[in-house]
């Protein structure tokens, strides 16, 4: 049974909600006190919150503060407002603040049952669809090769089948857009703003798809300003919601250092690729990050990715993963100018040069079968030649 928290001083309204939801949810009423809001939500752990906006301006203003605090704490939790539906300005302001539905305070029990019941039905449908895989890519310090690694890895994941989304947090602007020759307009800030109504229908309309692979891309920002307008909590909430809509979500965290964001995604991820180069500064940055996170239970899911691996450098991948306390590592071979040239053309390197060593390493990580080498000519040369039967020889030589 669902838990519904009613924030109101109106006990009579609570009784009406209990009557409306008696078979589908338990209703708990608490006074709307902003100072104890987090404690209330933690103790009740509601699936849905109904906020009473009252009928006057003062009550409305107080309720708006409550809604904003609730939405900031957990943007995925559905909020429903009870208030004066005749005031279009109040309804619009509440919806913009994160309310999913606005119901008139005087609505009969049947209307309460239908409209709040619709929100509970959405929760049931979300619970019936398990979250897709989450793959996180992170560099200890920026520009260690993580950006193009993420783009090419995500393309391979999309080619495997299913619906794959790349959330590109490269700053100051997206690297996936130019690397895949995509025009991007919808960013994470927009998705956070739309969380109350976010679904695949909306996303298929606003997200840009890389047609050759089917990959969809959601950038954190197209400019530096957009990146500062969204919190770590909101990004986490958006990613967790998006996982219910895609078979796989790949998040390129690039060089972001926010402990709440990195730690939250590390805890949720099935695969966590930590990208580093063969430089002491890069290894130290990775070690410092892991120390700040202090998440030993996540180490089993971490794979160290050594970018632009050069066997001539004496700092080996084995030494790097020993310092970091990571059990697995892979080496990304040097590509010369190939990787950058492909990105400059807006073409994934893994599709332009699928037999290159770099591409084959990524194919192994993404579970994509490597294309067999074209050895038909060699097989034909080595195959034993069939000798004609005596009957055929005699037929050909007969006068």
If you had to describe this structure to a student in words, what would you say it looks like?
- By secondary structure, the chain is an alpha/beta fold.
- 45% of the residues lie in helices and 18% in strands.
- It contains 19 helices and 13 strands.
- It has helices spanning 11-20, 37-44, 57-73, 88-96, 109-128, 146-159, 176-179, 188-193, 200-206, 224-227, 232-242, 259-268, 280-293, 317-324, 338-345, 349-352, 357-366, 376-382, 390-397, and strands spanning 2-7, 25-30, 48-52, 79-83, 101-104, 133-139, 164-168, 208-210, 215-219, 248-254, 271-276, 302-309, 328-333.
- It has an eight-stranded mixed β-sheet, with helices on both faces. Strands 2-1-3-4-5 form a five-stranded parallel β-sheet, with helices on both faces.
- Helix 6 packs across helix 17 and helix 11 (232-242) runs parallel beside helix 12 (259-268).
- The chain is elongated.
Could you write a compact summary of the structure shown?
This protein has 399 residues and is an alpha/beta fold. The protein is built from 19 helices and 13 strands.
């Amino acid at each position: 049974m669902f838990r519904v928290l009613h924030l109101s001083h109106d006990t009579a309204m609570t009784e009406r909600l209990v009557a409306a939801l008696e078979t589908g949810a338990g209703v708990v009423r608490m006074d709307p006190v902003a100072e104890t809001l987090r404690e209330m939500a933690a103790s009740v752990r509601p699936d849905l919150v109904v906020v009473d906006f009252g009928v006057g301006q003062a009550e409305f203003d107080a309720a708006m503060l409550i809604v904003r605090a609730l939405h900031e704490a957990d943007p995925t939790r559905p909020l429903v407002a009870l208030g004066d539906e005749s005031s279009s300005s109040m309804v619009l302001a509440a919806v913009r603040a994160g309310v999913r539905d606005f119901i008139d305070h005087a609505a009969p029990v049947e209307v309460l049952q239908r409209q709040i019941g619709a929100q509970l039905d959405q929760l049931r449908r979300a619970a019936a669809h398990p979250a897709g895989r989450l793959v996180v890519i992170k560099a200890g310090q920026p520009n260690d090769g993580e950006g193009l690694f993420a783009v090419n890895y995500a393309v391979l994941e999309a080619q495997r089948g299913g619906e794959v989304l790349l959330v590109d947090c490269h700053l100051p602007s997206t690297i996936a857009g130019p690397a895949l020759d995509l025009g991007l307009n919808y960013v994470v800030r927009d998705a956070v703003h739309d969380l109350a109504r976010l679904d695949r229908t909306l996303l298929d309309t606003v997200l840009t798809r890389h047609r050759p692979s089917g990959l969809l891309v959601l950038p954190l920002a197209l400019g530096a300003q957009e990146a500062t307008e969204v919190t770590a909590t909101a990004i986490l909430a958006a990613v967790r919601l998006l996982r219910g809509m895609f078979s796989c979500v790949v998040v390129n965290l690039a060089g972001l250092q926010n402990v709440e964001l990195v730690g939250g995604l590390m805890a949720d991820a099935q695969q966590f690729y930590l990208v580093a180069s063969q430089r002491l500064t890069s290894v130290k940055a990775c070690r410092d990050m892991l120390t700040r996170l202090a998440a030993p239970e996540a180490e089993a899911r971490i794979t160290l990715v050594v970018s632009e691996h050069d066997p001539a450098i004496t700092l080996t991948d084995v030494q790097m993963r020993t310092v970091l306390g990571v059990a697995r590592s892979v080496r990304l071979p040097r590509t010369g100018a190939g990787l950058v040239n492909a990105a400059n053309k807006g073409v994934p390197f893994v599709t332009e040069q699928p037999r290159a060593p770099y591409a084959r390493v990524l194919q192994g990580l993404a579970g994509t079968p490597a294309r067999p080498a074209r050895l038909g000519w060699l097989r034909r040369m080595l195959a034993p030649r069939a000798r004609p039967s005596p009957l055929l020889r005699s037929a050909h030589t007969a006068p």
